[in-house]
């Protein structure tokens, strides 16, 4: 973890971070021992050696990291609620005042001999943990439920869970998974996203991370996504990119993640995020999976500052855009924006 002072030590908004990629290693070890789950090490340092990415890899290898430690958490009611609570604590310590955390209810569910933990149970337990964390740490925490690209059979239930728990922390639906696999994943989830739109459920999609611009086009045109997770390959079609700029589509970008997953192979000084910044695009900075990347939000801000030329004014602008593009209620959005304007010493109704 970073030890130097933060380059932007003011209130922040984070919109793209995965709950199952943001678990404390101590908690993994605790539940691994309690449940008799085999882990590759019995110390924090040893566990992190197996989990953390230290250099760029392929996306499939990155996805494989989750299978190392998630069995210690999956299907355990106490563990699921605890990781949600500890997540809020973690983000509050980073100066985040509003966060949207995403996860797949199905990937944390289980049907073992101790009784099933259903996807519905998972959402309820996560909600309990997030709400308790909100009260304890004075932060707003909302959640996004993920469909999984290669499991379209789960998506109808994901939509129903979004409907059942709408604004009971749950504010949106997402599509995640290995984008590098060459199948019509967006089309496989079209009906679920169509129903989500009809129900007034907000929509984001992982696209253009390791896949090409076509995935972003499908996310926008087929799934009617309001935000794009990552989106680095959008510049493969300049006309399309300019249309997204005009439509004020929000990009949830993750600098350190994009380096370690192999999503962006260019040096940081040539990263696509620089283009977003120079074009005044609507985007946010996010951690994605801080456990696997052994990082906090401060690392992403430091990369943007040290290698991409980001100023404090740009950090303020992108956080205000993140607040405006958040999926919370209009009332909470106004309250969030007021807090940011006040903290940034900005008079409201400016260009921000």
From TrEMBL:
Coiled coil: none annotated. InterPro entries: A/AMP_deam_AS, A_deaminase_dom, Ado/ade_deaminase, Metal_Hydrolase. GO terms for cellular component: cytoplasmic vesicle lumen; cytosol; external side of plasma membrane. It is a peripheral membrane protein. Keywords: Hydrolase, Metal-binding, Zinc. PROSITE patterns: A_DEAMINASE. It holds the Pfam family A_deaminase. One of its GO terms (biological process) is T cell activation. SUPFAM superfamilies: Metallo-dependent hydrolases. Its EC number is 3.5.4.4. NCBIfam families: aden_deam. Belongs to the metallo-dependent hydrolases superfamily. Adenosine and AMP deaminases family. This is Adenosine deaminase. It comes from Varanus komodoensis. The gene is ADA.
């Amino acid at each position: 973890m970073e030890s130097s002072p933060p380059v932007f030590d003011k209130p922040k908004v984070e919109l793209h971070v995965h709950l199952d990629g943001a678990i404390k290693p101590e908690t993994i070890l605790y539940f691994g021992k309690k449940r008799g789950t085999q882990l590759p090490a019995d110390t924090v340092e040893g566990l992190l050696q197996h989990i953390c990415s230290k250099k760029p890899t392929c996306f499939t290898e990155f996805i494989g990291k989750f299978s190392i430690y998630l069995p210690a958490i999956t299907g355990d009611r106490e563990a699921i609620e605890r990781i949600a609570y500890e997540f809020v604590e973690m983000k509050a310590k980073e100066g985040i005042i509003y966060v949207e955390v995403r996860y797949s209810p199905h990937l944390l569910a289980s049907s073992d001999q101790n009784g099933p933990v259903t996807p519905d149970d998972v959402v309820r337990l996560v909600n309990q943990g997030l709400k308790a964390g909100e009260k304890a740490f004075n932060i707003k925490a909302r959640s996004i439920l993920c469909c999984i690209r290669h499991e379209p059979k789960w998506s109808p239930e994901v939509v129903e869970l979004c409907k059942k728990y709408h604004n009971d922390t749950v504010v949106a639906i997402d599509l995640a998974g290995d984008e590098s696999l060459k199948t019509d994943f967006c089309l496989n989830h079209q009906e679920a996203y169509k129903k989500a739109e009809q129900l007034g459920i907000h929509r984001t999609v992982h696209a253009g991370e390791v896949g090409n611009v076509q995935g972003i086009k499908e996310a926008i045109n087929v799934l009617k996504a309001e935000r794009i997770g990552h989106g680095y390959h959008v510049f493969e079609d300049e006309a399309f990119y300019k249309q997204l700029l005009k439509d004020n589509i929000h990009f949830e970008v993750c600098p350190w993640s994009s380096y370690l997953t192999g999503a962006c192979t260019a040096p940081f000084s040539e990263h696509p995020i620089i283009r977003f910044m120079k074009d005044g695009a609507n985007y946010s900075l996010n951690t994605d999976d801080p456990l696997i990347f052994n990082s906090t939000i401060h690392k992403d801000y430091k990369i943007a500052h040290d290698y991409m030329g980001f100023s404090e004014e740009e950090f303020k602008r992108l956080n205000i855009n993140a607040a405006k593009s958040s999926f919370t209620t209009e009332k909470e959005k106004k309250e969030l924006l007021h807090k940011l304007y006040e903290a940034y010493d900005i008079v409201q109704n400016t260009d921000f």
